Amino acid sequence: MPSLSPLRASLRPSVFADLEVYVARHVARGADLIALHRGDTYLEPPRVAQIGGPVAQGDDDDLYSYGPAGGLASLRNVIAEELRRRGRAFPSVSGDRNILLGVGATHALFCSAASILSPADDVLLAAPYWPLAHGILTAAGARPIEVSFTSRLYDHPALDAGALLRAGLTSATKAIYLSSPNNPDGKMLSRGQLESIAALAIEHDLWVFADETYADFSFGAPHISLSSLPGMAERTITAYSFSKSHALAGLRVGYAVAPREVVALAQRVAAHSVFNVPVVTQHAVAAAIAAGPRWTDRALRVSRRALDAVVEGLRDTRIRFAMPDGGAYVFLDFHEVLGDRPLTLLLERAVERGVLLAPGASFGTEFPQHARLCFTSEPLPRLVEGITRLLAAVDDLG
User: Fold this and answer.
1) Residue 115, Cβ neighbours under 10 Å: how many?
2) % of the chain surpassing 90 pLDDT
3) Cβ–Cβ < 8 Å for 102, 256
4) Are 156 and 194 members of one domain?
5) Kindly report the CA angle at 298 between 186 and 389, in degrees rounded to 5?
6) Rounded distance between C-alpha atoms, residue 227 and residue 88, angstroms
7) Is 51:280 a contact under the CB 8 Å cutoff?
8) Domain shared by 362 and 220, yes or no
């Protein structure tokens, strides 16, 4: 067989690959597994956006034809208007110039990264990080440089965020990748921390990939978008996802907000990968936006109650974690539970008890004894039962 691509071969496998054999064994015998490893929600999306409802009925011929390669102008304009209304972008953000639609935020980010990065470039990857970020940057040809970030800010809030990232700079650094609220630990960056990062980016003429897919899920202070700060609109690519904001993960629609030069080039990349985002799903997310914030406001309240249940369930245990500022996750530190033993030992016991977590090494090499728990993927009674099962797995280890 001819050789495969070394670059693609360097992409990391699934975050749950090491435990798939144990999961498969339990599924085969019909065991009940509580899925706290996946970044999803059990909530149904807004009714107006559901396939089979008004959005997918009638004789709208454009549902079955190729759509515009850049996406429906009406949707991009609605998105830009919503961003301006909520102060999440620069005031002059335009639907036709600054909105890149993608088949999920993952696709929009990859097309943007492929438009900016080359094999000679390094990207500072603020850790812990969303696992697919590493693969996106690698697939775009760049070299991710992990920099310990939000975990240190949780431990020492007075640290300078820009200085933490500065420590990872190389002569080839072209960009920074960060998320706020962060996946997996829920850290949301303050205005002062964002200003420090902005100063670093401007000083060294860096691009910044700002993953703000959980911007709607802040549990305290209001979320601040990096691109809204002075001097950052022209160097920031901001990602948003309807998978998170409206529970539409299966429809695969997300977008990036970026300078028009980036959008124009990224649309070429998108056209040579999927050509256009499915038209019916674009109509669905447009309907979700038009329905207003009622669904997202309810989802935020549900998420807050779920987080409270996690905190209560893990109180007075040997499992350590920082209280998330936002998002949908807690990043659990099992160092006191495991000692010198590997995390896989605990995760195997957890699967046997019927609960799934995502292993921490997928979120950064410095987290081999951490695991991510998603508190929005299951209804509250199942979440509470999942915590009970997790604690039983911890007890199994002794």
Assistant:
1) 21
2) 70
3) yes
4) yes
5) 55
6) 8
7) yes
8) no
Picking from 295, 301, 332, 300, the residue whose alpha carbon sits closest to that of residue 317 is 332
Q: How far is residue 127's CA from residue 19's CA, in Å, rounded to a whole number?
A: 23
Final residue in a domain of this structure, among 261, 290, 319:
290
* Tokens of residue 117, six digits: 């990065």
Which tens digit of pLDDT belongs to each residue from 189-207? 999 999 999 999 999 999 9
Quote the number of domains for the chain.
2
Backbone region of residue 317 per phi and psi (left: phi > 0; alpha: psi in -120 to 50; beta: other values): beta
Instruction: Report d(CA 381, CA 39) in Å as an integer.
Output: 18
What confidence score (pLDDT) does residue 47 get?
Answer: 85
> Domain check: are 154 and 270 in the same one?
yes
Q: Which two tokens stand for residue 262?
A: 């980036």
User: Pairing mode, if any, of strands 173-179 and 207-211?
Assistant: parallel
Which tens digits make up the pLDDT trace of 237-272? 999 999 998 888 888 999 999 999 999 999 999 998
Q: Are 187 and 197 in contact (CB under 8 A)?
A: no
Dig out the tokens for 50 from the structure.
Answer: 């559901």
